[in-house]
Each structure stands twice: as structure tokens, then as C-alpha cells.
Amino acid sequence: MKRFIDTIKNIFSIEELRTRILNTLLFITVFRLGSFVVLPGVEPDLMAVSTGGLLGLLDTFLGGAFSKASIFALGIMPYISASIAIQLLTMAMPYFQKMQKEGESGRKKLNQITRVLTIVVTFAQGLTYLTTTVPDEALLVPRSIFTVSSIFILISGTMFCMWLGERITDKGVGNGISMLIMIGIVSRFPGSIYQEFASRGSGGILIFVLELVALYFVIMAAVMLTQAVRRVPIQYAKQVVGNRAVGLGQRQYLPLKVNAAGVMPIIFAQALMFLPTAVFGAFAEDSDFAANAATVFADFTSWQYSLLYALLIIVFTFFYTAISVNPQQIADDMKRGGGFVPGVKPGQQTSDYISTILDRITFPGSIMLAVVAILPAFAAILGMTTSFAQFFGGTSLLIMVGVVLDTLQQVESYLLMRRYEGLMKSGRIKGRAESLAV
User: Which positions, given as ranges, span the membrane (predicted)?
Assistant: First the structure.
């Protein structure tokens, strides 16, 4: 405990780090206050937003702002959608690939395109949100006036959230966009714990304690999945510059993450899980089988739902790893830098070697990711409340773990620069932002 207190003192003794932490807290406070400001012309108590499926996932990310018809009802989700679209275009279209290779000027152009696309996505999502999730009985003004005014407010709210995220990244600690998502998720955690404790009653205190212990081990498993890497040794040959030999044949490592796709496979799979219910629901009146199937896939605790969900996550894990990690580019960069994998010929053989390793570690990684994703279903089956069960896995848990690790890594770097001991006695935290050895 004394070591922990000393570390906190060291953190606040660094003026720059102290200022960044206070700035982060200020921006987060503004974000949370904005999530309680309701759109003009809406009675929030009459809102009836689904707590399951994709809408429930969005409401979890936004800390309840979605169900409250807040000015931040869409939050930064349109920006994330636009960023994913630009990322996919960068990998698929030569025009965007060229722009990405232009350095700082290309990055600024991509950011500008992302912002413009964010406005377009916000308009589309906002119009859908206002027409499908805000019922007429919750409106205090005519629908047409409400829709027009709220569209501009939602776009302004999303752009303001994006600005807050950028300010946290520049003036605060951690990645701002990820931080805002995590804060939205964490904001529901105390209420979920209270609901779970209240549901157990005075005679279920032991069960509640066991649930907290189980949650602790699940979080540790998520940390292991996030941090796990396969280190590929890389040898750099000696180079002669003038009359001097540089690069004394040192050996480094290329860290290939077991879960290189992060939470994206879960997000993609979650977005598609409403399709079976919608398809079977369209034929429910004409077929008993379709009606039963629609009911089954609407229940996230059913084994059919969990099986399909897990299979989609495994498929998307391979897909997203394939488009986010390019073995050929890694091999080419190693070759240009004078590096090689011991026992493997530089060039195409190195690319094939890295691809083989990726396939071998991605498969168990995808299975572990699928298990983490369906853990909330098992928690709900065991009798936990739905809100508390969501923290036993899935997107919420992985986002929280990833953001906390990234933030701790940044704080750790400030402490090490001032020659203070870090947050962990065993040494430096290896966060998700660990760069490649090449």
C-alpha cells in the first residue's frame, strides 16, 4: 500500500503529468454532463429504447445518453464508423493508400475526409434515430420541427464529442476517443453492482461476493488476451558507414499479438446479430418455424444465438487480422532495414513465415475472443442481472481493459522519464500501443 501511495505522489509531483490528468478529468466531466442534457421537445421518461441487441450496445457505449435522447445521443459512434470506413478504403483503394504514404500532409487530408464523412454518417444515423427510437408520445412539439432542429443538434453534439476526444489526446492522458467510450461504459458499472446486490437480498451476500471474485478472474483473463504476443526474433546485420561499423548485429523481436483484431470482430458480429431476428420475423406470421427462430435469436442467452455469435467472431477475427496486419509489408520493411529472421531467407519466405505464425496464433486467439464475448450469456443464465452480466465479457470488458492498459502505459512512460519507479514492480507495462520492432 505504501508503494502505491508513493507512486501516486510521484505522479502528481510531475507538473506536466498532473496538468494532463486534471485536463482529462475536466473534459470527461463536460462529456458526462452533456449526456444528461435532453434534446429540446422530448419527454425522456416516455422514451422506450430497447435494452438488447445493437441498440442496447450503443446505449452501453454512450453511458445511457442514447436512451435518454440526449444531445450526445450518438456520441462519437458516427466518428468511429467513419474512421473504420476510411481505414478499409485505405487498405482497398490505391488513392487512399497513396495519401496514407504522404506523411503528415496525407494524414491531415485523411483526417479532413474522416470529419466530413462523420457529418454525413451523423446525419444518416441521427435521422434514423429520431424517426425509429423517439416515439410520438414522447414529443412535446410537432414531429417535423423536432426532426429538423434535432438533426443539427445531434451533428453538433457528435462534432463536440470528437473535439473533446482530440483534446484529451493532445492535452490529457490516453487516447481520447477510446477514453470517452470507456467512460460511457464505466458510468453504468456502479449502478449495475447495486442492482445485482439488491437482487440477491440479504441472504445472497456470499453469492454476490463469489460473483465479484469471478469477475476479477474474468478481467485477468481479458488482460492476458489483450497483452499476449508471439515474439519473432529479428537479427540486424552489421552495417559499415564510412570507416565505422554500426548496428552491432543486435537482436530484437517482432511482437505479433494473439488478438491483433482487438474488439472489432465483436462489434462487427454484434452488428449482424439482429439480421436473423429481422429475417425470420418477416415470415413469422406464415411459418411457425420462422416465429420460433425469431424468438430464439432474439434471446442472447440461447445456445443458437451464442453459437452463431461465436462463429461470426472467429470469422471476423481472421478477416480483420488479414486486413490490419500485412506480412508482405513487414517483410519488405525488415529487408530494407537490414533485418532478417534467423534461419529464414529475407523477402517472400519471411512473409510466408510471418503469415504462418499469424494463422497459428489467430485461431486460438479468435476462440478465446469468442469465449469472452459469450461469457455474459452464461452469467445471465446463472441468474445475474442483465446489466451486471454485460461486464463479464464482450465489447465492454475488452474496451475497458484496453483503454486502462494504454493509459497506464502513458503514465508509466512519464514516470520512467523522471526516473521514478513505475506502477508495476515487475517493470514496464506492455500496452497495446507497443510498436513493431521494424
Answer: 21-42, 71-92, 113-132, 144-165, 172-191, 203-225, 260-283, 303-325, 361-382, 388-408
Above 60 in pLDDT, residue 301?
Answer: yes
Alpha-carbon distance 257 to 365, whole Å?
Answer: 9
Which residues on adjacent β-strands are paired with residue 231? 255
Closest CA to 157 of 129, 138, 136, 132: 129
One-letter amino acid identity for 188?
R
The contacts of residue 318 (CB under 8 Å, 6+ apart) are: 362, 366
**pLDDT over 90, % of the chain:** 7
For 226-241, what is the mean pLDDT? 78
pLDDT in tens, 352-403: 999 999 989 999 999 998 998 888 888 888 888 877 888 887 777 888 888 8
For residues 290-303, give the mean pLDDT. Answer: 82
pTM, to two decimals: 0.76
Which residues neighbour 155 within 8 Å (Cβ) at sequence distance 6 or greater?
Answer: 119, 122, 123, 126
Q: What is the DSSP letter of 139?
A: B
Are 158 and 177 contacting, i.e. CB atoms less than 8 angstroms apart?
no
In the structure grid, which three cell numbers stand for residue 329, read together?
509489408
CATH 1.10.3370.10 domain span(s) along the chain: 14-187, 189-438
Q: 26: how many CB neighbours lie within 10 A of its CB?
A: 15
Q: Give the list of residues 6+ apart from residue 87 with CB closer than 8 angstroms, or none.
A: none
Q: For 264-284, how does the pLDDT look when each residue is reduced to its tens digit (9 = 90+)? A: 788 778 777 777 877 887 777
Q: Using pLDDT thresholds of 50, 70 and 90, give the confidence band for residue 426.
A: very low
3-state secondary structure of 1: coil
For residue 52, what are the CA distances in angstroms to 60, 67, 190, 239, 321?
10, 12, 20, 59, 28
Q: With the CA atoms of 20, 412, 185 and 223 taken in that order, what torsion angle do they form, in degrees rounded to the nearest 10?
A: 170
Grid coordinates representing 144 are: 417535423
CATH topology of domain 14-187: Preprotein translocase SecY subunit (1.10.3370)
Mean pLDDT on 53-78: 73
Strands of 130-259 (E only): list them.
229-236, 239-241, 244-246, 251-257
CA 187 to chain centre: 16
Class of the CATH domain delimited by 189-438 = mainly alpha
